[in-house]
Amino acid sequence: MSNPIFNTGAFPDQFNEQKRERRRFYMNSDSGTVSEDRRQDKTYAQQHGMPKGQAESLERSYGMQDAAGSEGAPMTFDDVIRKTAISFVVVLLGAGITVTLGGSVEAPNFGVLSTLLLVGIFGGLALGIVNAVKREPNPGLILAYSLLQGFVVGAFSMILEAQYPGIVLQAVLATVSVFAAILILFKSGKVRATPKLNKIFMVAVLGYFIFSMVNFGMMLFGATDAMFGLRTGWLGVAIGLLGIALATYSLVLDFTNIDEGVRAGVHQKYGWTAAFGLTVSLVWLYIEILRLLAILRGMQD
């Protein structure tokens, strides 16, 4: 459930810092050498006698952001917010379907919930990989992934709410709080993704993913009868805290890449890629927090 999207070919090559700067050149009258001035008072066209109106028109034509080009408008923060909101509406729709089919919290239908949970896990894993490796975002596949994640969120929440009343509200508040805190810290410049941390993150995510798959397999085939498999007691707490830390840094990666993508002027269709990344990170964070709370409350009983 990691978020490697922005480290793949999902964003175009213009996303590179060195390629996204538009440079204008003019001839230095003293030395005859070419020098760079991104904010000169006069454009090349104006320096060579072109009327002001035509010069400004030409400047606007060639001043378009590189990544968007003639294919459409560049990605904006508003565009990312809108597409992310659509993605989360679909997640809530999937969760609503699960809650409707799964009975009530007082008398949940564990057979239906377990089926939807497995469909969401396996289907979401498959679509997550497909969406992560695709060079061009596909809104239909991304929203299908969101729907399947809604099944996971709804089923997992109902199962744990039936055992630990009030736990879903606690997990939702904690997730929103973490998201808001990371967003504020990012906007203030206090947290940023760095190459060194990115390498540590990718290694940790790989190890975490392998452990999770082994643990899930053991639970699926009856090798352990614990609710969370090997995630029991203080070991489960430690692994849960690691999962929350990884999901939180995944949000930092999302914010960093969205910010750079907007400044680079990548095509607005990549707003769907950003929405997918945020959906992955937030669902992951919520599930990790919900599971950690369940382990802690189970230890108290």
**Overall pLDDT:** 81
Largest sheet: 2 strands, antiparallel
Helicity, as a percent range: 55-70%
Number of helices in the DSSP assignment:
9
Rg, Cα atoms, Å? 24 Å
How are the strands of the largest sheet arranged? 1-2
What order do the SSEs take from the amino end to the carboxyl end, as H and E? EEHHHHHHHHH
Relative strand content:
under 5%
Structural class: mainly alpha
| Unreliable residue stretches | 1-41, 43-48, 57-70
Oligomer classification = single chain
Spatial separation of the terminal alpha carbons: 30 Å
Verbal overview:
The chain is mostly helical. The chain has 9 helices and 2 strands, in the order ββααααααααα. The protein has helices spanning 44-47, 52-62, 77-101, 110-133, 139-163, 167-187, 195-220, 233-264, 271-300, and strands spanning 25-27, 34-36. The protein has a two-stranded antiparallel ribbon with strand order 1-2. Helix 5 (139-163) packs parallel to helix 9 (271-300), helix 6 (167-187) packs across helix 8 and helix 7 (195-220) crosses helix 8 (233-264). The longest helix has 32 residues, at 233-264. It is globular and about 50 Å long. It starts with 24 loop residues before the first strand and ends with a helix. Mean pLDDT is 81; it is low at 1-41, 43-48 and 57-70.
Write a compact overview of the structure shown.
The protein has helices at residues 44-47, 52-62, 77-101, 110-133, 139-163, 167-187, 195-220, 233-264, 271-300; strands at residues 25-27, 34-36. It has 301 residues and is mainly alpha-helical.
